[in-house]
Predict the 3D structure of the following.
Amino acid sequence: MQNRKLYLGAAAASVAVLGSVALTAPSNATTPAHGRHHDQTMQGRLNPLNNSGASGYAAVTVDGRKLHVRYDASRLAPGLPHAAHLHFDVNARHQCPSVRDDVNHDFRLSTTEGHPAYGMIVTSLTTKGDTSPASALAVTRFPTAPHGMVEYRRTMTVSKAVVRAVRSGEAVLVVHGVDYNNNGMYDFDSAGPSDLDASLPAEATDPALCGVLR
Ligand SMILES: [Cu+2]
């Protein structure tokens, strides 16, 4: 046992706790007892794209390499899978796209047309399993928005690059899936094939909600 004198003007119970912290910490430590991880929560309102009529709110808490992701959305196309991702690129504008990003003037913003604004997919907000960009269109592992509502909660481990992107306030959360002709399914009638995967309708992948996490 170290014969180390600690000045502690606290109650006896706290003395024991603080004492053990002080004895295990390096002698030159200036870190507070709360630990070295500084949790940081980034958040943003989710605004509609493509006249989806949806709305929502997102918050991501960074805890080391872990992200605690939550978003609530309403008035999404009900009963259909909604792919959702964190997007980022160092060269992106770190914004949600506007009508000026509709480069082919078809009055829709495709996912690709949004890339200059929000960047590429860096994390897939699936309900289970893999969360990498490889699961970007894993349609069976995304929320299906019963009654148009999604309450997403998941903790995932990500790369340091993704942690940096989120901490910098430059990551953008995008929820996809717009039923343009309101027929209760994603089909090719209103908008043709997806720019991401021609075997999928554009309705399944066009962005419906977007929010920058600041
Ligand atoms: Cu996305």
Summary: Residues 1-36 form one domain. The longest helix spans residues 12-24. The helical segments are 12-24, 111-118, 160-167, 202-205. The mean pLDDT is 87.
